């Protein structure tokens, strides 16, 4: 009796152990069958549509970048022409030269900046910033140089952006020059003012050169307070070093004229071909 009951208990263990094993086989078979489920046509079509949409977006962005690069090249070239025109200024033709420079700058705005604005308005123009930043900096440099030569004041960022608003479609977000591009263009302005100051000294306009010197000093002093607080200031740091060199060159030129004024003043603005007396000034050109 005891033997038969023990045999019955022992025979029941394999059956109990086989149930989890069978359950595992059933679950594994169901998972395997589900993993081998073929894709439907609807899934393939949806993925193809998504990839097509992304491809079209990238192609459009690349085409826009090419157009922006071409427009930026035109802005850069013609802005440089405005700067060259300003450097033709002298005490005899100041109004005439500045009037032509302002007309040229207006043409740059209407013909070339307008193309740039139309390409970038209403889009994420920050994605294409590297394609147009140098053109904007050159334009800022030309515009601020014209303003200083005419009024002796600085053209600020709000005024530049306000002049761009009429070029934009009112129904979309307009292109606005950001602070970094404006400051980079302003840093380049100091180099042009240094050349202008040296030229004015050689033409006898020492007071005008001193005015330029004070203006460049003020810009440099203000930027030394701003640049350390900027997040992305690697470009500005390089230009700050160049700006300091421009300030020093203007100061040295003005200082040399004051110290040796008795030698310089009789020949300032003279057409005498002997320019040996201008050795100290010419070293700053």
Automatic annotation (TrEMBL):
InterPro entries: Translin_C (IPR016069), Translin_fam (IPR002848), Translin_N (IPR016068), Translin_sf (IPR036081). One of its GO terms (cellular component) is cytoplasm. GO terms for molecular function: sequence-specific DNA binding. Its main location: cytoplasm. Gene3D superfamilies: Translin, domain 1, Translin, domain 2. Belongs to the translin family. PANTHER family: TRANSLIN AND TRANSLIN ASSOCIATED PROTEIN X. This is Translin-associated protein X isoform X1. It comes from Phoenix dactylifera. The lineage of its organism: Eukaryota, Viridiplantae, Streptophyta, Embryophyta, Tracheophyta. The gene is LOC103713285.
């Amino acid at each position: 009796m005891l033997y038969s009951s023990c045999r019955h208990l022992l025979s029941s263990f394999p059956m109990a152990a086989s149930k989890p094993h069978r359950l595992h086989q059933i679950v594994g078979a169901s998972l395997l069958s589900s993993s081998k489920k073929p894709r439907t046509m609807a899934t393939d079509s949806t993925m193809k549509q998504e990839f097509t949409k992304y491809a079209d977006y990238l192609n459009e962005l690349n085409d826009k970048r090419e157009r922006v690069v071409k427009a930026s090249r035109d802005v850069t070239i013609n802005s440089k022409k405005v700067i060259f025109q300003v450097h033709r200024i002298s005490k005899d033709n100041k109004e005439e030269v500045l009037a032509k420079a302002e007309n040229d700058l207006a043409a740059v705005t209407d013909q070339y900046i307008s193309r740039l604005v139309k390409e970038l308005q209403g889009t994420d123009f920050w994605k294409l910033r590297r394609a147009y930043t140098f053109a904007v900096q050159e334009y800022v440099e030309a515009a601020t140089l014209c303003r200083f030569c005419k009024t002796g004041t600085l053209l600020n960022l709000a005024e530049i952006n306000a002049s761009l608003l009429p070029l934009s479609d009112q129904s979309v977000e307009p292109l606005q020059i950001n602070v970094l591009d404006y400051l980079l263009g302003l840093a380049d302005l100091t180099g042009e003012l240094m050349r202008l100051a040296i030229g004015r000294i050689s033409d006898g306009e020492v007071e005008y050169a001193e005015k330029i010197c004070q203006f460049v000093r003020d810009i440099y002093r203000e930027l030394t307070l701003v640049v350390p607080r900027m997040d992305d200031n690697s470009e500005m740091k390089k230009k700050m070093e160049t700006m300091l060199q421009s300030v020093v060159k203007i100061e040295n030129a003005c200082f040399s004229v004051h110290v040796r004024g008795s030698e310089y003043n009789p020949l300032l603005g003279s057409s005498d071909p002997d320019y040996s007396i201008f050795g100290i000034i010419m070293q700053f050109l």
